[in-house]
Amino acid sequence: MNPVIPIQTSPVSTTGPGASTCITPMPAARSVLRERGQREVFCGLTGIIWLHRKIQDAFFLVVGSRTCAHLVQSAAGVMIFAEPRFATAIIDDRDLAGLADANDELDRVVTRLLERRPDIKTLFLVGSCPSEVIKLDLSRAAQRLSRQFAPGVRILNYSGSGIETTFTQGEDACLASLVPCLPTASEYADAGSSLVVVGALPDVVEDQFSRLFAAMGLPKVQFMPPRRSTELPSIGPHTRYLMAQPFLAHTAHALEDRGAQRIAAPFPFGVEGTSAWLMAGAQALGVDRAIVDQATASARQRAQSALAKVKPALEGRSVFFFPDSQLEVPLARFLHRELGMELTEVGTPYLHRQHMDQELALLPHGVQLSEGQDVERQLDRCRAARPDIVVCGLGLANPLEMEGMTTKWAIELVFSPVHGYDQAADLAQLFARPLDRRHRLAA
Amino acid sequence: MQLTLWTYEGPPHVGAMRVATALTDVHYVLHAPQGDTYADLLFTMIERRGRRPPVTYTTFQARDLGGDTAELFKSAVREAHIRFQPGAMLVGASCTAELIQDDPGGLAQALNLPIPVVPLELPSYQRKENWGAAETFYHLVRTLLGPASRQADAGERSPVAGRAARCNLLGPTALGFRHRDDITEVTRLLQQLGVEVSVVAPMGAGTANLMRLPEADFNVVLYAETGATAAQWLQRQFKQPVVRTTPIGVRGTRAFMAEVASVVQSLGGQVKPVDETALRAPWYSKSVDSTYLTGKRVFVFGDATHAIAAARVAAHEMGFQVVGLGSYSREQARDVRDAAAELGLQALITDDYLEVEETVSALQPELVLGTQMERHIAKRLGIPCAVISAPVHVQDFPARYAPQMGFEGANVLFDTWVHPLMMGLEEHLLHMFKDDFEFHQEAAPSHLGSVMRNQPAPAQQSLSALERAGDASSAPAAPAAATTASATISWTADGEQELKKIPFFVRSKAKRNTERYALDHGIALITVETLYDAKAHFSR
């Protein structure tokens, strides 16, 4: 399979093929500024950085160009791992000119790789812009190589190309490629195991959620992706799934194709989001509200008092989000409702109306939502709004600081443990720290 | 198809970005898919630039591929021109756009912009970053100075006699290894020689400065990787001699000064003597404290300019033994091979990180002078390392003045290369006393007496944390040879006892050598005798 993620689900009216802007009315009388132009965002390959840390026996082989290799290396920032579990098979002239059969070449590279790394149980062939454009069929390659390396190694493929995926959509494509491998759940499996939490979470957060669910009498909640690719959750018509990340449109679709049903909930950021998320998950499995309240009481209280300490630093301050990870809407909701921040513009690369339904309902009226990007125009709006803090990508942060603005790197919101009760204050701190720093340096 | 874990160079369009970013009024419109904007962070994060690189990307997506990507490119060029009002524009394609063949050059020309537009053809599937930078700089210079080069008086300048000679410094770019400080140091050196620096390019130059390149009497190529192609063209078109000696190290700097002097003399001028009082490196190297540096086995790898210079400095100014020299700069491979031959070595020319790792692992040097990649190889193998070349890391842009070139550069090299060796010794000491009754994990710092008896000493704590990090990263890729060696070979009790008497800082090397000797000679059990046989075998 080769998941292609629709960047936008509904047609965009444009004034021309270049940069364009249009306002689309939203159901709750909420208007969304939709833009096309230069997008200052990562492509889906970047997800490899956290996915390879999460799935500890998986290897990610990008089939792409030197640019892809350079991107992954640069996004990894510091080259911390002497021998990482990701690499690039760099397509060269011979492959393009047809002098070398690209499929033979790929088989050779994969064989060399798997010989070097006998510890690998799952190999993801990750498609890139060049591999998509030259129509190198990685799904067939994956099938062919799977036969060769079965049963020791499972070989899957997905596309992390920039023409098809924006940043976190790479994780979506990766998880969607795993869905067909999930074992079918027994019809008579006990109730607890029919709940699956979807979306890569740091292990520490996953363990916290496990403990909370266990305290509600649900000790067998499953997580996807698992830490070891051999321990996949089982799934079937009785499966209910809860999304831990907002950017999993395609994975959700694939799960539903297998009969699983989504539990609608806000995302587990902040006390409010976490409580609503846990409650929705537990109630879907028939757990009584009082039991959920009781199981979460102490964690909730702890998180509330930790948040209260950070709140004075953020209350009344304004924030502007550049589009990055699709976490923007839930994060804006958290900053506004629990920390009293004012929202200027909330930009997101893609707004999934259905998955974001409950989040959007919690946003204040009049907040400017924007979808897609024309970075130059957005920078103009940001400068005009003069927010107290700007959430943006690494390419924009230092230049905006130089202009006198305070920034928070959006990528840290994806790499750090920010979900759940015990991370709520850490999440708030990520926004408070740049403001604190500016204050200290000015003093 | 090449399996690549890490790459020494980015694609050629990143080289073009390094040139555009170095210049002050040139804008680059790059036909590229969404995601290629990652390259901005190299400049804003690694180099901490306070401005975005002057690059507009078309960031096309799948839905655009069905439509008119050419129109998308044209509107990007048009809008970038209106918004940024550059003095010249570079247009080109990244690897993916190269495949869709929209011809950015032709599309941009069709817009008839009132500024010079330079189409860049940078084949992404053959070439790499440094070549891309050199080509970009060359084509820009050629486009701007083409008309001037065709005039009858091209290359005619007043005689140098009676005025200061003028030169240009060519090659420094954004994201270069210490280019910022090298410019300052070399400019200062030339000023002392009585030579004026007319234009530095691409770093800090605008199109107006580039137009003035032909006014200089000669050109200095600081970095052959990025500056040589343009210098060659200028030499041909404007009769500007080229100084190519790299002023790195004391000998390198003196050879550079000599070459400048001879060029100036050939033009009828004279140079002035240079004040060397701030040059400390030769004395530091001669002082008895440095005796322990003698014959240290060093492996050198980097771009051609820095690797060649470092090997020479290591051999002749530090008294090291260079055991390996290599470079990823294929375009300058011949120079690297020549430099290696001078030292009785065969150069390693490769951009395969795994091959470099294998070489370092086989050579077992005592110091590695390399890039950030070699720093990681060395860290994993427990070998001290100093970084001498790009690819760069945020650490390679220090706040302080730290040139590599000129006399201050020589001082900097001495400090930065000796430093990891000292640290290496210190780490060995800490490691050696790790289990000592006074220094073990649970012991409190002695100055705190019995107060902190139950807490680990901070220094020890951080050390063990470092070790854990090291273990974690090295575990998956522990060299297979070492495990087989210890699996098939064992030590007798007295052999092991004798090994422990060897000073700690050479003990692991002695152990390794003895095991290798035993393996080569089919000895399964190492005795005291084997230990000394091996010592005799390996002593030079």
What does this structure look like?
- The complex is a heterodimer of chains A (443) and B (540).
- Chain A has 443 residues and is of the alpha/beta class.
- Chain A has three domains: 44-165, Nitrogenase molybdenum iron protein domain (Rossmann fold), CATH 3.40.50.1980; 191-296, Nitrogenase molybdenum iron protein domain (Rossmann fold), CATH 3.40.50.1980; 307-442, Nitrogenase molybdenum iron protein domain (Rossmann fold), CATH 3.40.50.
- In chain A, 42% of the residues lie in helices and 16% in strands.
- Chain A has helices at residues 48-54, 66-75, 93-96, 102-116, 129-133, 138-149, 169-178, 203-215, 249-257, 270-284, 289-314, 328-339, 357-362, 375-385, 394-402, 411-415, 424-442, and strands at residues 20-25, 31-36, 58-64, 86-90, 122-127, 154-159, 195-198, 222-224, 240-243, 261-262, 318-321, 342-348, 368-373, 389-392, 407-409.
- In chain A, helix 7 packs parallel to helix 9, helix 10 runs antiparallel to helix 11 and helix 11 (289-314) runs parallel beside helix 17 (424-442).
- The longest helix of chain A is centred in the C-terminal third of the chain and has 26 residues, at 289-314.
- Chain B is α/β, with parallel strands linked by helices and 540 residues long.
- Chain B has four domains: 12-127, Rossmann fold (3-Layer(aba) Sandwich); 149-266, Rossmann fold; 281-430, Rossmann fold, CATH 3.40.50.1980; 479-540, Helicase, Ruva Protein, domain 3 (Orthogonal Bundle), CATH 1.10.8.550.
- Chain B has 22 helices and 16 strands.
- Chain B has a five-stranded parallel beta sheet, sandwiched between helices. In chain B, strands 3-2-4-5 form a four-stranded parallel beta sheet, sandwiched between helices. Chain B has a four-stranded parallel beta sheet with strand order 7-6-8-9, with helices on both faces.
- In chain B, helix 1 (12-22) crosses helix 7 (129-149) and helix 11 (249-266) crosses helix 13 (304-316).
- The longest helix of chain B has 27 residues, at 406-432.
- Chain B is globular.
- The chains are: A alpha/beta (443), B alpha/beta (540).
- At the A-B interface, helix 2, strand 4, helix 3, helix 4 and helix 5 of A face strand 1, helix 2, helix 3, helix 4 and helix 5 of B.
- Strand 4 of chain A pairs antiparallel with strand 1 of chain B.
